[in-house]
Design brief:
It is a single chain. The protein is built from 10 helices and 10 strands. Helix 8 links the parallel strand 7 and strand 8. 33% of the residues lie in helices and 24% in strands. It is of the alpha/beta class. A 6-stranded mixed β-sheet has the order 6-7-8-3-9-10, with helices on both faces.
Length: 245
Amino acid sequence: MTLNGEHPPPILELRSVEARYGMTTVLWDVNLEVPPASVVALLGPNGAGKTTLLRAASGLIPVAKGRVLLEGTDVTGLPMYRMARLGVCHIPEGRGVLPSLSVKENLILFSPKHKERECLERAAAAFPILGARLNQTAGSLSGGEQQMLAIVRAYLTNPRLVLVDEASMGLAPLVVDQIFEFLGRVAREGSSLLLVEQYIHRALAMSDRVYLLNHGRIVFCGPPSELEGEEIFERYLGIEATAGS
């Protein structure tokens, strides 16, 4: 809360957003808020439009209708590179690394100018295995190590907002533990997170607010405590709450 008693604006706000691929509308009248210093989970079945929502929020794809606001400022239509300059970090599904470059070169690309050495040290502190493999090509890393390299950018630039799309997909349980521990650290250091995640109970455990998306529409918004019963998931999404737990 600000000194005059007013609440600060959300870090991210989507107002009546629609998004399309060609002539196909994927998101319909989506309203969503990510408050400052919070973790928001975006859950839903495959094909619900979760990845599309993150892409629209980060400027990777344009919105067809509606508005995107960043801390109250209208940023609708800004491309992804400009959103990144404003502090939005989008970690896409599928490990967004450059496989032909070394780990060190990937990290330098993620780093602010003149802070490359500091960022290399921070990355190695967050994931020591990356520090031990700086000269190895990113494409030769294991899947878990590539995901560590992809998400560590959220730690290097101190972003205002981190959009995370299925960070745990296809990873061994031990690596999943490390990924979630890291995301918790990013949140504790003040970044807001919008988290798309297959491990439903893990996402709920670290979230302050949950949105359920189904067929391109928000069908629920509320605290995680309201989603404790499996019947809620079955009613809204047609899936069991134990899926991916």
